[in-house]
Design brief:
Elements: H1 3-37, H2 49-74, H3 80-90, H4 96-110, H5 119-153, H6 161-164, H7 184-199, H8 204-220, H9 226-249, E1 255-257, E2 260-262, H10 271-297
Antiparallel strand pairs: 1-2
């Protein structure tokens, strides 16, 4: 492939991506108009925020008063094997684990030539893009705002426990050593919990257990105190729930069904339809390249 053809493909891909961005913005504005005109706007049964706030604040206070001190002493007694195992598991809480695949899916599908597909196949790819956008905004949004809170609060991490104790705050926390509260990995874990519950609700308690252990692993490896992970997990979960509720009200991937945020069956991702769409695009690209090659030989 020559340098000129590569440049042409990049320009064409950028045009398709920008065109999709404009189409999405037009769809969003259209949905807003429809929502404003609705007389019976969908009502979402939100969680009991007051109860959740009381429980979360109570757990954080328990951490400040009792658990954080105990965790600071306990971290030096963790066996090396346990530390290594939890160090592997804790990496699942890194935001890039979700952000990179989500961004690649959005960009890769955005540069494809959707005009070659039927409407149903375009809809399948659109669902993948919309889901990727939700994942990206949920993880990146909760992560960035959580990091701002960490800097503003400036709590010392457990690595300084012996010299400073668990209750040292030095805002703004411009150094990583003073960015302990709330935990960023735990915020990602909380966001993942809500994402997985919304997509596969029948496994709700499985998702809560798996993601909660990502947060707990931060205490085991000595990176955070218990209060840090409670605050981070709660923040990531709340951020993602509110984002999903906003998308449901605007009918962007999610819908409000009987007061709950849900994904209608016709909008759920189908591996078969996605595979067929990508296969058709690949075949059309191959046919186009073959035709160009044949014309060049003529």
């Amino acid at each position: 492939m020559t340098q000129t053809s590569i440049k042409e493909h990049m320009i064409a891909g950028w045009k398709r991506l920008s065109g999709q961005g404009r189409a999405f913005w037009a769809l969003f504005k259209q949905r807003r108009v429809i929502i404003k005109q609705q007389s019976d706007k969908p009502v979402i049964n939100h969680p009991n925020w007051q109860l959740l706030a009381v429980v979360t604040v109570s757990l954080i206070l328990m951490g400040f008063l009792f658990l954080d001190q105990a965790a600071g002493v306990w971290k030096s007694t963790v066996p090396p094997v346990t530390h290594k195992l939890f160090r592997l598991y804790t990496d699942l809480g890194k935001s890039e684990v979700v952000l990179i695949p989500a961004a690649l899916a959005i960009l890769a599908l955005g540069v494809l030539n959707w005009k070659a597909l039927r409407v149903a196949q375009q809809a399948a790819l659109m669902r993948v893009q919309m889901l990727g956008l939700f994942l990206f905004v949920a993880i990146a949004g909760s992560g960035l705002t959580n990091n701002l809170l960490k800097i503003m609060i400036g709590r010392a991490r457990p690595r300084h426990f012996d010299e400073l104790g668990p209750m040292t705050f030095d805002p703004p926390g411009l150094s990583s050593s003073f960015q302990g509260f709330p935990s960023g990995h735990s915020a990602t874990a909380g966001a993942l919990a809500i994402i997985l519950i919304l997509l596969i609700p029948r496994l709700k308690w499985t998702w809560i257990g798996l993601t909660a252990w990502i947060a707990i692993s931060r205490v085991v490896v000595g990176s955070h105190y218990p209060a840090d992970i409670v605050a981070g997990f709660a923040y990531g979960a709340a951020f993602t729930w509110l984002l999903a509720a906003w998308m449901a009200r605007h009918r962007l991937y999610f819908r409000v069904i009987d007061g709950s945020i849900d994904v209608p069956n016709q909008l759920r991702l189908s591996a078969t339809s996605l595979y067929k769409s990508l296969s058709l695009l690949r075949q059309k690209a191959y046919d186009k390249a073959s035709n160009k090659s044949a014309q060049g030989e003529d």
